[in-house]
Design a protein that fits this description.
single chain, Four Helix Bundle (Hemerythrin (Met), subunit A), two-stranded antiparallel sheet, 4 strands, 6% strand
Amino acid sequence: MNIMQPPNAVFFVGLVVQFVLRHHFIERTKSEKKKVRQIDRTEKILLAIMLPTALLLPPLYCFTPLLSFADYDLAASIRWTGAVIMVASLWLFWRSHVDLGQNWSVSLEVREDHQLVSHGVYRWIRHPMYASIWLWGLAQGMMFANWFAGWSVIPAFAAMYFIRTPREERLMCDEFGDRYREYARRTGRIFPRLTKAAKLARLPTNEPESKGKLSP
């Protein structure tokens, strides 16, 4: 079985860690009252496309021969580099939740007393949680020597990212108005605005303004 290959086993350890983190933060925030919630057919379809690529294809590849037709040779150095990227993804995933605190939600939501978070990793980018998933997709592709199990998560998440992110930002603009627009002008979506990085690094960080961020 492919699960006996060390990089594949490491991937599943990372998957368990990600699940534990997500479950912890869901439990911590589920009692918060919601003011606006947007879950429609598009949202459900996007999740139905993405989740199998992240949760179904990896086990099929590692525990069955069903995807063996899509195997290819992949250097061990690339696979272990993918493992390092996976660790970075998990750190960013965790840090994003910590910085959001009670403002995080699974779906497109605005909670009562929602705040505009602009500290921590949100000081540099508006969607660090999405950035962590992009890193996870890259790591998955590099760790699995299989076209379907490895790389299908990238186009699946791309569809969700490019459809969901504008909707999320419109929701934030509706809630926070010019405060969010100003925040968006000085930050990147998933990459920092490097031309402003030095200036931002000199800004005081006493009491952060806050902003609610949403997550996939």
